[in-house]
């Protein structure tokens, strides 16, 4: 009685709280705990819901004259309030939900995803929020849920756009939403095995096997485990093992291929129906998986292609269910296909890739960009096939994450078990076996080319691929969750699921998701010679046991990766780390020619590349140069030069004792004094950061001079064409530390997006002036510059262009290494590619042709309304961002830049350029150009060259060679 009273009080408290405000994660966690203890869980009472809208008591069913009703539970008021305040829906009853509300288009399909995630949590946590409520009789009627599911999919699939844009999401939801009596047995197997291993740790090895390499033989292994450990297991564990054995036995029953035509009666007379019937006739008794899987993959892809042409929603539902059965066949049978030679292995890679596309883990247009059918026998051709196959594995994982990461992140805040959901989905997909087979091909090619990775003692090392060459020694930190709250240190090596948006200096980095190769984070890593690699999900998990250990980490110029314990380093590797060498890598910001006396706002048309580092930073100088070269591709703009910042810094600080400039210089003088006194570098750095924080806060409140404000008003009216406060603009920090000969400084300081009002523009100017003194910017400068105190910010003010998509062009093939190729990365909306989003990335070959390196996988993108700020819009992935004309325009632009930039600037620079650009209604706009700076020391290091084998790509491989 007391326990029930406590539950009631908790629920009343949170219900009252939720009605007034959004609940915190801790509040939600406590609320779920109260539901777990309640025999009704999140439900209140059972009622009849009649077709006339009336609600009746459980023993008073709807009368015949009204028509049949449905019986189910109602929600507790706290559950309803949680939906209103946080848009979190627990214990959803489908028969109690409107179709449009469940599809939840306005919230990126959140409620549907929550339903799926809720089912997963129930399976891994004994009912989760319904721990006791799962036994509340009558709360949910399975036949009503199934009938609702059928009607929901008929409604959803009647819209062809839904199928085109959300094929993966819809198909995945079919595994969880009841609509024909089937159940997601594969997920139940993984969930049950996890629960058993949590209760009986000795089951862990078997759980790992079931999760990573499942096959029909696991049933016997489970039964053997129970028999061998009978005396050590509790009765509850024995019951769970028996249940797992029953589920596995049911799951591994052969799919009745001959019944497939009966499952698709609405298309029997159509071509796809004839294909299904022919498949059922030819393969219902096929035992040879080398024949069965290719045929199944081809039909799986054909069904996906046929779905759009089919107009009947009911027929589409039948085809999707048939598609799920075909995926089940491949998932079960893949372990049985054991190729004997390289030919067979290439076939397996190709057809698992095809099946993976048919099942929606990549888009059809992406599949057409991959060439997995090649049977050329040179080492170079085989390596190209491997590269394409690796891409498909990476794209598949990113498809799952793009669709579900948002809701997983929300739930992980109050339920850590939710984090395992994405991993569970990937392990239940064809992509699991595709990845394993690609790993086998990678190992084979590595042996033939001697290009092998050496990462501790982990398995499947072909999942590692180097991005930036370099070497590091430091503590290994493996981050399996979100990286955004991690405080990084410059002497540590980090392994992330995805790179953080604002990475501070680190010794080395490896990520499962590389973001894109031309983001600011990647360019900084490349510039400073920080070793950087991508790895597979399994690789990250396998490295967790080394978290906290000191390791040596190196990436060669050819992309092979070494990671070993510090104790295993060779004398040559130890000699790489000397203070002298580090000191020599640092450079001095040139200030001899800086013109701080220039104290008026400039028209962008008045500056060019020769003014960089003198009047303003390279962003404004180079954009002014581009304005002269490409007047119709560059907006008008204002430049606030170094001198205006410097004159403001001569004003007295708020306490009135010293000027801002004196305060700044004293920080660095005091730091040098501390070093001469033997104070540790860590303490010196902390002292500087505290003082810089004070300075930064003061600059944000600095009074702007009346003359400067008058110039600003005049510049907006005369140059930008509208009064200050009437046109949205970007404020771009533009310091003299950027684009030095050996240092890019990309993305270290502030850009303020799309501000309109006079007050926000003035505040933004102060924020930009303060941004070089943030911890992140300061730490990167300290790592590389000898005189970081002599950093001066100018500001580039340009009107906003609400681009449809934007990105980066590098006038070099980063992947190929060829200087006349191009690398481009684009995201929808403004700024995504630069900020490290998963961007649509291509290599454009000088000899002709284009290669897709990665598709965009970002659900949200920024648009720039005329009212200021940013609007988040959602994206789908069925179409590519760039069209053929866009790519040709970029190719033409790159040729013009290469030809005219050196002439116009009287420069002897012969390297590549880093260009920011965008398209609005297919018109190309230029926003920035800078030299593309690479770390030549890392590229030319004798050691890095020594660990990169010389590879003869023309070497012929006998494809009939046994494996």
Describe this structure in words.
The chain has 963 residues and is an alpha+beta fold. It has six domains: 2-180, no CATH class; 184-214 and 217-251; 265-449, no CATH class; 455-584, Phosphohistidine domain (Glucose Oxidase, domain 1, 3-Layer(bba) Sandwich), CATH 3.50.30; 602-799, Dna Ligase, domain 1, CATH 3.30.1490.20; 805-932, D-amino Acid Aminotransferase, Chain A, domain 1. 45% of the residues lie in helices and 13% in strands. It has 35 helices and 24 strands. An eight-stranded mixed beta sheet has the order 4-11-10-6-7-8-9-5. The radius of gyration is 31 Å and the shape is globular. InterPro entries: ATP_grasp_subdomain_1, PEP_synth, PPDK_AMP/ATP-bd. It catalyses: pyruvate + ATP + H2O = phosphoenolpyruvate + AMP + phosphate + 2 H(+). Pfam families: PPDK_N.
Query: Rg to the nearest angstrom?
Result: 31 Å
Give the name of the CATH architecture of the largest domain: 2-Layer Sandwich
Largest sheet: 8 strands, mixed
Number of domains: 6
| Form type | globular
Mean pLDDT over the residues: 89
CATH class of the largest domain: Alpha Beta
Which range does the strand content fall in? 5-15%
Distance between the termini: 68 Å
Q: Mind telling me the CATH superfamily name of the largest domain?
A: ATP-grasp fold, A domain
Number of strands: 24
By helix and strand content, what is the structural category? alpha+beta
Protein name: Phosphoenolpyruvate synthase
Family: Belongs to the PEP-utilizing enzyme family.
Pathway: Carbohydrate biosynthesis; gluconeogenesis
EC number: 2.7.9.2
